[in-house]
Specification:
This protein has 330 residues and is of the alpha+beta class. It is built from 13 helices and 14 strands. A hairpin with a 3-residue loop joins strand 6 (84-87) and strand 7. It is globular and about 75 Å long. Bound molecules: iron/sulfur cluster (SF4).
C-alpha cells in the first residue's frame, strides 16, 4: 500500500451558502465539468473507493498503488483524494475527467453505442454536428456510474451533523453554477435525490462513527495537549486508517467477494464490503488498545468520555429515514 501526500491540488474554499431544501432555484448540469472536475481536489471516503472499483475495473489495492487515490492527514484523521492530471495550461483535472469534442461523440456513437446512450441528450445531439469542424462539447466522467459522493453532491455539500446543530440548514451551496444556458427551476432536494445520494449518506453514517471511535481510542493524528494518543508506531497508525480505504487487502473480502470489483455494479455487495472493512478496523482498534494496557478512559480527548463501540446494525437499519431530506420527500 502506497501513501502519498496530495499532489499539489487545491481544496475548495468553502464559502458556503446555506440552502433551504425546497426553495426553487435555477440550475442544471451543463455536462462540461469545468467547475466540479477541474482544479479542485475531490475528497473520497471508503465507500467511494469501493464503488470506484467497478467503474475502473481495478481493485482498491491497484487504485492506491497506482496513485489514483492519494492520502494525507487532515484535521483529526486520514483523508483521501482522487489524483489529478495536468489540464489546459496551468489547470489540473480529475484523472477521470474526459473532454469530448463533437467528433469524439460521433465516433463513440458508432463504436460504443452503450456508452453513447449514457450521455445526456444535449451531448448526444452533438454527434450530428460534425460539419463545422471540431469543438469541445462536454467534459464527462469516465467513472460516472460510480462517481464519489462529493461529485454527486456538487454544487452542494451536505452538513452531516445537521441534526446536531439546531438552526443549521442541511445543505450548503459550495459553488454557483450560474451561467449554464440549460438551467431550469429545480430544488436542492430534487438534485440530491436524482443523484442517488441516499446510498452514500447511509454508508457515511458507518464511516463517521468509525472515525469517531478511532479518535476516541487515541488513534487520531492530533497534536493537542488535551489529546491522549494510543502509544503505537506511526506506521501502524497510518496503516490502520489506510486499511479502511483498501477493502481488497482484507481476507474476508477476497474470500467472500472474490472478483466482485469486476461487476459493473453490486450495491448490496458494496455495502457488505464497506461494513466488513470498517468492522475489521474497529476490531483492530480494540485489539491494539487491549494490547497497550491503557485504559480507554485515558485515551482520546481528556474532556470527552470514551465512546461506545458503534452499533453497525442500528446504523445500517434501512427502515429509518436517512435524513430529513429524504424523510420529508418520502
Ligand atoms: S470522479 Fe468524475 S465527476 Fe468526480 S471530479 Fe472526477 S471526473 Fe468529475
Amino acid at each position: 500500500m502506497t501513501f502519498l501526500g496530495r499532489d499539489g491540488f487545491r481544496q475548495r474554499e468553502l464559502n458556503t451558502l446555506p440552502m433551504a431544501l425546497d426553495d426553487t432555484m435555477l440550475w442544471d448540469c451543463s455536462s462540461k465539468g469545468w467547475h466540479c472536475c477541474v482544479d479542485f481536489g475531490i475528497p473520497v471516503k471508503p465507500y467511494d473507493v469501493i464503488r470506484l472499483r467497478h467503474s475502473t475495473g481495478k481493485t482498491s489495492r491497484e487504485l492506491i498503488n497506482e496513485h489514483a487515490v492519494t492520502f494525507q492527514w487532515v484535521g483529526d484523521g486520514l483523508g483521501a483524494w482522487l489524483a489529478q492530471v495536468p489540464h489546459q495550461g496551468n489547470h489540473r483535472a480529475c484523472m477521470f475527467y474526459e473532454e469530448l469534442t463533437n467528433q469524439d461523440i460521433s465516433r463513440i456513437r458508432d463504436e460504443d453505442p452503450a456508452r453513447f446512450q449514457s450521455f445526456p441528450p444535449n451531448v448526444q445531439q452533438a454527434a450530428d454536428r460534425t460539419q463545422g469542424g471540431s469543438y469541445r462539447v462536454a467534459g464527462l466522467c469516465s467513472a460516472h456510474a460510480n462517481r464519489p459522493e462529493a461529485c454527486r453532491s456538487f454544487p452542494f455539500m451536505r452538513h452531516a451533523d445537521w441534526e446536531e446543530r439546531p438552526g443549521q440548514e442541511p445543505v450548503s451551496q459550495v459553488h454557483r453554477c450560474g451561467t449554464c444556458a440549460l438551467k431550469k427551476p429545480t430544488t436542492v432536494r430534487d438534485i440530491v435525490l436524482e443523484n442517488g445520494l441516499e446510498e452514500f449518506w447511509r454508508t457515511d453514517l458507518l464511516w463517521r462513527a468509525t472515525k469517531s471511535y478511532l479518535i476516541s481510542r487515541g488513534l487520531a493524528n492530533i497534536a493537542d495537549a488535551n489529546y491522549r494518543a494510543l502509544p503505537i508506531d506511526e506506521a501502524d497508525r497510518l496503516e490502520l486508517w489506510g486499511s479502511c480505504f483498501n477493502p481488497d487487502i482484507l481476507p474476508e473480502v477476497t474470500e467472500h467477494f472474490e472478483d466482485q470489483w469486476q461487476l459493473d455494479t453490486d450495491l448490496d455487495g458494496d455495502r457488505a464490503i464497506h461494513r466488513l472493512v470498517l468492522s475489521a478496523a474497529l476490531d483492530r482498534v480494540d485489539t491494539l488498545v487491549a494490547e497497550s494496557g491503557v485504559a480507554i478512559e485515558h485515551l482520546g480527548f481528556a474532556d470527552e468520555p470514551p465512546m461506545e463501540r458503534p452499533d453497525f446494525d442500528a446504523l445500517s437499519d434501512t427502515s429509518l429515514p436517512m435524513l430529513p431530506v429524504i424523510a420529508i420527500a418520502a
